[in-house]
Amino acid sequence: MKTADCDILLEKSALVLHGCASEAAGAALRGVLVLRLKKETKVKSIRLQLEGRVQIAWESDRIYTVDETVIDNVLTIIRPNTGCVLPKGNTVYEFEFRFPGDLPETVFTPCGQIKYHINAVIERPHIFRDIYIQKPILVRRQPYLINSDTIDDSLNISQIYKNAANVQIQAPTRSYMFGETIPLHITLSYLMGNVSICRIALRLVQTMVLGIPGTSGTKKLQQWREISNNAVSCNEFIFNTRLPEDIFQPACSTKYIETTHEAILIISFTINGKVECGYVTFGINLTCKREEDESLPTYTPVKAEDASPKLPSYTEVTICTNQGLSLR
Which DSSP category does 306 fall into? Predict the structure, then answer.
């Protein structure tokens, strides 16, 4: 009969690395390891392992593969061979892992993935089965503050097509989540007679580049989808287009996988009785749903007497067993 189980609970659903590598260095992943015991239980050791791996494969002139570990940190809660008896009920151990600022964000694509997880190992005496649990970690990168007034992410394009029509396109932002609507404000002014708009369509183009750092091995994958196509007749209108939730991969920029997107607006004109198409291309940033808290934390002054006199090691840290807390 199972007498114990455990769980890893995280303080936040995702670890967000803000800014460049130097600004993001030291981001903390915090949580608790919860042991639920039906009776007093002997353990030999308890440890947590944070691991991040890159696994990519593609075929070009030859087969290219990447299988690298980007982070591998161990946190020892009960040292091996020290041993102890844990009481019946719930026991909680707090933990914290610090991340380097240059780690790639979590990515899942058909050609490869970058993923992180925490492994918990509760080692029991040899006649008992050890307890293992694994918790996936979502790592996000936020290059700038969300809703920052210092970043102009708006769209404002003016383009003349064949000296026949001037097209102006405006939008409040170029960044959208899958499932959101892109509101394009389109204004047309005709530069000659016998010109009118008859149709408008929007295509999304995804470009994915796979690479092996330090080598010339790369592969570029591109695909497109038409997500809207409507007949129009007026010279000024809002072209609302909803982004399908499962159409493409979210944008990312790592040295292993880089994904970018472009939007192509196709405007069909009738010029002297003949239908001709004009194309307007602009970059767009497509992301998956943001976590509840991707903003920077609130900072408060730290008193000198509160500072630790000795910096901890982030490779391996030992926590005394008396730091276990009881949950009610």
Answer: G
Place of tokens 């240059």: 102
Report the pLDDT value the prediction gives residue 319, as an integer from 0 to 100. 43
* Residue 291 and residue 307 in contact, taking contact as beta carbons nearer than 8 Å: no
Q: Which residues contact 147 (CB under 8 A, 6 or more apart)?
A: none
3-state secondary structure 183-201: EEEEEEEECCCCEEEEEEE
Give which of 290, 3, 232 is closest to 124, Cα–Cα.
Answer: 3
Q: What pLDDT is recorded for position 28?
A: 92
In a 10 Å sphere around its CB, with 0-12 CB exposed, 13-18 middle and 19+ buried, how is residue 285 labelled? middle
The residues facing 267 across adjacent strands are 200, 278
**Beta-strand pair 45-59/236-242:** unpaired
> Distance of alpha carbon 177 from its chain centroid, rounded?
12
Residues of the chain with CATH 2.60.40.640: 4-142, 155-290
Domain 4-142: which topology? Immunoglobulin-like (2.60.40)
- The whole-angstrom separation of Cα 205 and Cα 6 is 45
All residue ranges of the chain with pLDDT < 70 are 1-4, 143-151, 289-328
pLDDT of res. 301? 52
Residue 68: closest CA among 53, 82, 58: 53
CATH number for the region 155-290 comes to 2.60.40.640
Tens digit of each residue's pLDDT (9 = 90 or more) over 124-174: 887 788 889 999 999 998 766 545 555 678 999 999 998 999 999 999 999
State how far the alpha carbon of 151 is from the alpha carbons of 141, 175, 180, 254, in Å.
Answer: 16, 12, 21, 22
